[in-house]
């Protein structure tokens, strides 16, 4: 079997907020007996929740060994990596103690240096790079809600790195002998005949529970080279004021508070919890609704923006931390401009991700982001996006290729993996289960408009919900888990969903399929958004001849470009 080298793009666009694009080289080998999307559309399959499991678990306590602060003074902790440009990497960490309570005083970020010492040999740090640091506060003008101010958050961008190379690094402040232990990372390789497979873990709605622990241990076992977090990261906003009853009780502890407290030390706990993995494997984050975290003076997204380095400047997204819930038009234009730039002969794979799913047959969040789908779907289809990852719904679902609710062999494969294991429990109800069709007042989005609609064709014509699993839903299961995407060559990618309950069973996969592109068949011309594609009409007539070039140009560049912008 010929092993091919591939460049592909990851495009992450989140709730009108974030765009990240990455292209990288991948190599792999095919396997037999795994279904391919070419055999689809598949008959819908549902695997219901296994009643021998519990639907969720408690949050880990702040004194849990994986959450507890184990350093003192200005010693670095919560070390994390994120991809920057092709030859650069972000290193982020926190020094100094966070404070929470009635009297908090922000630390001075300039009181400690931001240095990364690194090199290609263990113990020999031939390079030193400095960066920037900041603190943020989460404040509430309401008695009983706790004010918070963070430790000093450092971000350093290492530049001029060699591809496919292992680096050893320490971070901290050398002048006060506060450098971390040595950590390592490997830069992504340049295309070449011996490139090992890139394994991209996709995780959504993780939280910080016993189930999140299983997920992260399982991800670690699966040895990813990059992690995509598709939003709703720590669930800090669900920790203290929910009365322990889960999502629906927004203010049990403080019913009259104008805003809901989000308990920021959870973010520090999350940073420590993730550190063993993300201090060696870069993690790209996109924000979900749990990152909004409103505080005094209408400020939002403070923690998310301060804690995570994202390559916004590198990618030319315009403004570094630009967010506003009503700048959708600008963001749309920016996304479109960016999609125009993608050269599919160089970058055959275009993978998009944002937090809330467009296609979702669970009762939870059913049609919640229908406005976004209506505004964006044609654009995505015209630009032949291959795969779309989302979270938000706390269960797994993989769609048959679908466009505008109609099966379409050239539409993206939509996958929901909001099953990371957060405190809100697994979603088990389907909108097609008797009595479980949400009413119009349910599932109101936290941002954007409401565009619920009844289907205009098909078996559910005139109705809001189907009476059985919709034909566009290929497989759904109410379990926690995560996915691994491995791009094999310019037309084949292997997608595997791993369930938490299978963590000790090596050969069990919750779901596995080859996602196969048909570039000639699905030329751009046939994807004009206004009609459903008839396979017979378009077969072999793809005259937009980028497609044949894809296989030839697969080794052009490593080019990891990550785009990130905000503009909700
Ligand atoms: C890609 O891999 C698949 C599965 O291994 C194989 O059938 C196909 O021929 C390969 N395509 C190319 C262009 O190498
Ligand atoms: C979540 O974790 C708890 C505690 O480990 C376990 O009992 C429960 O079955 C898990 N639930 C799922 C859905 O995996
Ligand atoms: C928290 O910060 C807000 C905004 O600065 C302030 O109004 C409030 O009094 C502080 N709360 C406490 C308990 O100090
Ligand atoms: C939409 O469907 C629901 C039932 O699913 C029905 O009650 C409602 O009248 C329909 N609305 C319209 C405008 O047809
Ligand atoms: Fe969410």
UniProtKB/TrEMBL annotation:
Ranges where the Calcineurin-like phosphoesterase domain occurs: 199-396
All residue ranges annotated as the Purple acid phosphatase N-terminal domain in the record: 76-187
InterPro entries: Calcineurin-like_PHP, Metallo-depent_PP-like, MPP_PAP, PAPs-like, PAPs_C, PAPs_N, Purple_acid_Pase-like_N
Pfam families: Metallophos, Metallophos_C, Pur_ac_phosph_N
Keywords per UniProt: Glycoprotein, Hydrolase, Membrane, Signal, Transmembrane, Transmembrane helix, Zinc
Cofactor(s) demanded: Fe cation; Zn(2+)
Keyword Endoplasmic reticulum attributed: no
GO molecular function list: acid phosphatase activity; metal ion binding
Purple acid phosphatase C-terminal domain sequence ranges: 463-502
Ranges that cross the membrane: 6-27
Reactions accelerated catalytically: a phosphate monoester + H2O = an alcohol + phosphate
Keyword rRNA processing carried by entry: no
Gene3D superfamilies: 3.60.21.10, Purple acid phosphatase-like, N-terminal (2.60.40.380)
Enzyme Commission designation: 3.1.3.2
CDD domains membership: MPP_PAPs
Domain of life: Eukaryota
Annotated family: Belongs to the metallophosphoesterase superfamily. Purple acid phosphatase family.
UniProt name for this protein: Purple acid phosphatase
């Amino acid at each position: 079997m010929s092993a091919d080298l591939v460049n592909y793009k990851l495009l992450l666009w989140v709730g009108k907020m974030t765009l990240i694009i990455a292209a990288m080289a991948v190599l792999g080998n095919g396997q037999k007996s795994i279904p391919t999307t070419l055999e689809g559309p598949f008959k819908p399959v549902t695997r219901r929740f296994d009643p021998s499991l519990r639907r969720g678990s408690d949050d880990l306590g702040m004194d849990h060994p994986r959450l507890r602060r184990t350093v003192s003074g200005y010693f670095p902790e919560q070390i994390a990596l994120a991809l920057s440009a092709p030859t650069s990497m972000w290193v982020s960490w926190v020094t100094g103690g966070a404070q929470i309570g009635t009297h908090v005083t922000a630390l001075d970020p300039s009181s400690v240096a931001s240095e990364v010492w690194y090199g290609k040999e263990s113990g020999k740090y031939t390079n030193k790079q400095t960066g920037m640091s900041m603190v943020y506060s989460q404040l509430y003008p309401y008695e009983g809600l706790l004010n918070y101010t963070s430790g000093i958050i450092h971000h350093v961008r290492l530049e001029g790195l060699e591809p496919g190379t292992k680096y050893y690094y320490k971070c901290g402040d050398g002048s006060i002998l506060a450098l971390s232990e040595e950590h390592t990372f490997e830069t992504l390789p340049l295309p070449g005949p011996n490139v090992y497979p890139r394994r991209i873990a996709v995780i959504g709605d993780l939280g910080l529970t016993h189930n999140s622990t299983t997920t992260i241990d399982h991800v670690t076992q699966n040895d990813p080279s990059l992690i995509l977090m598709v939003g709703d990261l720590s669930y800090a906003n669900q920790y203290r004021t929910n009365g322990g009853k889960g999502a629906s009780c927004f203010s049990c502890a403080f019913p009259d508070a104008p805003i809901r407290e989000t308990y920021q030390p959870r973010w520090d706990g999350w940073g420590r919890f993730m550190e063993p993995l993300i201090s060696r494997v870069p993690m790209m984050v996109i924000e979900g609704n749990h990152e909004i975290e409103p505080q005094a003076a209408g400020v939002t997204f403070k923690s998310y923006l301060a804690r995570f380095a994202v390559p916004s400047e590198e990618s030319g997204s315009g403004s570094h931390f630009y967010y506003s819930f009503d700048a959708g038009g600008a963001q749309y234009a920016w996304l479109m401009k960016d999609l125009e730039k993608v050269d599919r002969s160089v970058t055959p794979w275009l993978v998009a991700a944002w937090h809330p799913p467009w296609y979702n047959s669970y009762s939870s969040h059913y049609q919640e982001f229908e406005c976004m789908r209506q505004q964006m779907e044609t654009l995505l289809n015209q630009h032949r996006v291959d795969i779309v990852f989302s979270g938000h719904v706390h269960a797994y679902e993989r769609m048959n290729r679908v466009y505008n609710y109609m099966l379409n062999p050239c539409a993206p494969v939509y996958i929901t993996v909001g099953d990371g294991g957060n405190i809100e429990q697994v979603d088990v109800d389907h909108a097609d289960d008797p009595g479980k069709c949400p009413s119009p007042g349910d599932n109101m989005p936290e941002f954007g408009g409401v565009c619920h609609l009844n289907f205009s064709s098909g078996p559910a014509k005139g109705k809001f919900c189907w009476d059985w699993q919709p034909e566009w839903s290929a497989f759904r299961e109410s379990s926690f888990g995560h996915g691994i995407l491995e791009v094999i060559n310019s037309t084949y990618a292997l997608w595997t969903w791993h369930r938490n309950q299978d963590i000790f069973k090596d050969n069990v996969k919750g779901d596995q399929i080859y996602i196969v592109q048909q570039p000639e068949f699905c030329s751009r011309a046939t994807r004009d958004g206004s009609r459903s594609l008839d396979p017979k009409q378009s077969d072999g007539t793809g005259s937009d001849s980028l497609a044949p070039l894809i296989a030839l140009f697969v080794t052009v560049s490593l080019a990891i470009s990550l785009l990130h912008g905000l503009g909700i």
